[in-house]
Amino acid sequence: MKKTIQAVISFFIVGAMVAGGLLYFAELTERKESINKFGEFYEQEENFDVLFVGQSHVLNGIFPMELWNDYGIVSYNLAGHGNRPATTYWVMKNALEHTEPKLVVFDCGMIGQDEKTGPIEQLHISTDSIPYSKLKVEMINDLIEDEKQREEFLWNFSTYHNRWNEVAENDFVPQYSVEKGAESRIDVAVPDEMVYFEDSLDLEEETLGMEYTRRIIEECQEAGIEILLTYLPFPDKTGWQLEANSVWDIAEEYNVDYLDFYTLLEQVNLNTDFYDPNSHMNPSGARKITNYIGKYIMENYPIEDQRENEDYSSWHEDYEVYTEFKKENIRKEEELKNYLMLLNDKNLSYGIYFKPWNLIGNYPVLIELLNNMEIDYSQIPNEDYFLLIDHVGNERKEMRLFETMKSRFAEFSMFYNDDGQLELTNSEAESMIITRSDIAVVVFDNSDLSFVDQANFVLKDMPMEFGENTERE
Known about the structure:
The chain is 38% helix and 16% strand. By secondary structure, it is of the alpha/beta class. The longest helix is centred in the first third of the chain and has 28 residues, at 2-29. It contains 16 helices and 15 strands.
């Protein structure tokens, strides 16, 4: 009898060890895109006041850390690449098991689709990090018809067990998103030509996407959660605006607010604010849309400013990490067009040097980007010229050759040194030789007036399609 008991105990101990080992190796070999993006959301114990859900337009277009800094909004971006409304419904429903938001902001892109999911790889990113539960099983059963394929979502080891050769250091420690689920996409693209439609034109038939949009609204209303519908803007040449027009009927049906494509289109610049020709915003566009929606939320919904709430004190530290992330994006950027796009940030100030007879006029995109920074290139004198844009003091200062400029950030001067090189000195950083530069930039952080970066750019005689033919020295 004693031996039997020992055998049973040993069996359970070995079984527990095997099960524990399988769970460990399942977590280790699992691809970390989903954990990195959503893991912090499921770990935070404090409540989130606002959730953003939808597809990649939201992912690249709404920055929760900017909302925190500007308005004290505690939010998370739960949007995913290619998410159809059915996927968004289940992502949101699972999220509501973890937190009790006061507001859900749902972007209605893809409501014209009759598919429940996008590509399987994208569905993994949106769902792998969701904790296992009865609700997750219901989600997978609804979204995926193939029973065999369901297994790879409910038991990830069956999907990722062959990643042994790919396991790296970051598989052991999650690299959580410093953007609270958002993703900055850095580029500036030639926009597709817009095709405009009358407001009265919309989708003619009811779709599966519309059905799940209604389920999203109903789920929120039953839980006493406010919901705001949006349709974020982009250069549309194929008629997606018909979806945007169709949302009005649903919004009126449920008596909810709706920020439509046309309203938000006025807030962005199609020539500077998108990183691909017909879809997604870059950080310049995202900051504009984020600020607009943040202001709208604070004026229309009972969302508290949590910046003085000790329960969210760690968010101040998170914002410092996010700020350093933005600075590092500037420091490593090699393309002038992208560099100027990143400077469209009210939290930065900068000085820009223009060489006489420079080649900027060959690059229409650069002129657009300067306009986006409220610099009228046509007013730049044809001489060695330095313009400081001070967003702290809301002022501009000018400096020419052989002059000195004092500012709250640094003291500058421009002169020829003993080697005959044109030099721009900056009391907070090393001096720059700007003899060859068509344009040179010095960047400062408004929060503490600290130096961020400086860079020289040379433009070539024959620009490529959209300003790529530049060189950072």
